[in-house]
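help with this record:
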Amino acid sequence: MKKQFILNENELNELIKELPLNGVIILQGDLASGKTTLCKKIAQFLGKNENLSSPTFALMQDYGDLYHYDLYRIDCDEIMLNGLFENFFEDGLHLVEWGDEKLIKRLLKYEISVCVVKISLKKNARHYEIEKR
């Protein structure tokens, strides 16, 4: 089932309340669509005071029970080879920017719950589509 929202940055808590707080959330969207902004808002919602930023070069940042990934530069096969995939079995919330369908299928194969958030910009508004798989 898909849910759609049209929200500004100040209204993101409405969206966050629809998201699971455990498992994997895949964030998809073009550059500057708001993926990292949503990750920061989720961290704030969870009471995390760390200065969350996009882990473009580190690939993953660990904030205790919150994990933040940026997979812009790598694909699913590389995730499997470098050992990053094993992190998805850890309890907590895994926020994955740039996760693709191949990664989603692999996660589902291992019965890891996945929620996909597609973000797009239309007419100066951010559109969010949530699909829990």
